[in-house]
Structure formats: structure tokens, C-alpha cells
Amino acid sequence: MSSLDHFRLMAPYNAWMNARVYDAAERLTADDLARDRGAFFGSILGTLNHLAAADLIWLGRLAAHPPLSGRIELAGLPQPTGIRFIVSDELAGLRPIRERIDRVIVGFVDGLTEADLVGTLAYRRVDGTAHRKLLSSVLSHVFNHQTHHRGQVTTLLSQAGIDVGVTDLLALIPDID
């Protein structure tokens, strides 16, 4: 599988899993969602906000990259100033933003070429540190980051008595005839 095909698998998987997590989270009360459960970002809602904020930060960096200019539409979306930025203080407000972020990611990845993936992305971290990284490596990080924190959320949901169900990427990989 090429890197491009891999990302074209990961983008819809990412959206599918986010929808499953949000469906599960909607079964909890606002208090349960906001309860500090000792995770990196405290609560289920805090972790979901972190994921949305981080994706928006990365999409902003990608949108500002000259070879990718015009391929990512972020108008009307929040512009986080850090990884603890609160995109929405309630799940009902966060979900439509998450869904739009996922549509943007899928559309962006669908428009990429192999040549794009070997390009260098120059960006600054929130703390101002400058970096230059291979675009394909950055995209790997973005999807890995989602998986990492979604795993935390599914654990927190499980501890709250909510089963997210199947979470494996394998569920979206077609059988070979």
C-alpha cells in the first residue's frame, strides 16, 4: 500500500471512529462528560476538545503551507491558540465542529498527490519553536495522535459503563477476493 493509499484509508477511519466515540459520549450526562477522570486532559469532554484543537492547529499549519494553499477551507472554524483550547464547553456544540473537521481532513487527503507527501512542511509550534518535517510524517502523526487520545476516551467511556463497540481499523479494510 502506498503512503497516499494509507492516508486515504486513515482519513475515513478517523471520521468513522470519531462518530462512534461521539455517539457513545452522547449517552452520558453533561456532568459525566465534564468529570475529571485523571486523563491527560482531565475529562472525556476535555480530551475531545484537545483532539479538535490539535486537528485545527495542524490544519491551520497545512493551510498556510504554500504548496497546499487553497486546499483546506477553515473559514468559520475556531482558531485554537493552544492544545488545551476549549473548542466548545458542551458536546452538542463540539460535535458539529468535529464533523466539519473530519470532512475537511477527508477532502484534503483525497486531494493529495504522492508528490505532496514528499514535500517539507515548515511550521512553528504553539511555543514558537520552528520545525521542518516531511509532510507524510506529519500526517502520520496527526492520525496517530487521534488514535492515541481516542483510545483514552474509549477507556474513559468504558469505565463509565459505555461500550463504543468495534474500534479496529480492520473493520474498514476490505477483504481481498
Descriptive notes:
- The structure is a single chain.
- The chain has helices at about 5-25, 30-35, 45-65, 90-110, 115, 135-160; strands spanning about 120-125, 130-135.
- The chain is mainly alpha-helical and about 180 residues long.
- The protein has a single domain (about 5-170), classed as Four Helix Bundle (Hemerythrin (Met), subunit A) (Up-down Bundle), CATH 1.20.120.
- Strand 1 (about 120-125) and strand 2 (about 130-135) form a beta hairpin.
- The chain is globular.
- One of its GO terms (molecular function) is metal ion binding.
Distinctive features:
Four Helix Bundle (Hemerythrin (Met), subunit A); 177 residues; two-stranded antiparallel sheet; 2 strands
The total tally of domains equals: 1
Measured distance between first and last alpha carbons: 17 Å
Rg over CA atoms:
16 Å
Shape: globular
The CATH architecture category equals Up-down Bundle
Biggest sheet strand line-up: 1-2
Produce the secondary structure layout.
Blueprint: H1 3-25, H2 30-34, H3 44-63, H4 91-110, H5 114-117, E1 120-124, E2 130-134, H6 135-159
Antiparallel strand pairs: 1-2
In short:
The protein has 177 residues and is mainly alpha-helical. It has six helices and two strands.
